[in-house]
Amino acid sequence: MFSTLLDLFLQRSVDSKSLAERQKQQMARSLPKQKSISGVHQVLVVASGKGGVGKSTTAVNLALGLIANDPSKSVGLLDADVYGPSIPKLMNLKGNPELSDSTTLIHMSMGFLVEDAAPIVWRGLMVMSAIEKLLRQVDWGSLDYLVVDMPPGTGDVQLSITQNIPIAGAVIVSTPQDVALLDARRGAEMFRKVNVPVLGLVQNMSIFQCPNCNHQTHIFGSDGARQLADTLGVQFLGDVPLHLNIRESSDRGRPVVVSSPDSPEAAAYRSLASAVVQRLQEVSG
Fold first, then answer.
1. What distance in Å separates the CA atoms of residue 175 and residue 164, rounded to the nearest whole number?
2. Residue range 119-149, pLDDT digits in tens
3. Which of 96, 140, 193, 257 has the fewest beta carbons closer than 10 A?
4. Around Cβ 163, how many Cβ atoms within 10 Å?
5. Does 100 score more than 80 pLDDT?
6. Torsion of the alpha carbons at 5, 6, 7 and 8, rounded to the nearest 10
7. Which family does it belong to (predicted)?
């Protein structure tokens, strides 16, 4: 009797694995074939599990940090946050996208195509069509890096991008707060499932320094993202402080890497950019 039950259990286990393998093969056949963007050498995606953790500000300053560290590099910035595009505000850009005056940074955003206060009420197919146009109907020229500011979460946009173009790596942004880290973990696991290398985690708003007395406070907790990186077995890419200069420069449309290049805040983003380039070399090498 025991032998019969064991045989039945093992058979069901084999059948379950076979079914899972067939489903995986069917999904692979149904996915679109990845096609590189003409002229773009490497695509980096900046993502977060939830909103409000400073992902877009990080994406902008990362892109500018890549240029600041090596002015010979050409960098593009794509705002793929379809429902909440913020790159035009962060870069003080309106109307048609164009080259920035002070850098070789090329920008593109849904924010250029809709009114500032207009809600974008689209379903999945419309979103995927818009992403396809942003990726393939923009003259990106010749780029060393295309930095993509992804929407928060794990939805249609993320899947559409990762399934359609080869991604060199993903940068996950989180605050040290527990609730943000839970979502950051989901984001990292999603990229792993779609075979996108997770370059590492950025701990944003890591520490606040009072501008009057210089007292430092860990408002959102300390070292949460560093500990999560260790748990996931990925690189910890660095800390970015919660600083008034970052907020004010972002609101003015003059990112801190450009407006205050000698500040400690700009140095944090340049250090992040260096860590990302090093990880890219490790992953591709």
1. 29
2. 566 666 777 787 888 888 888 889 999 999 9
3. 96
4. 15
5. no
6. 50
7. Belongs to the Mrp/NBP35 ATP-binding proteins family.
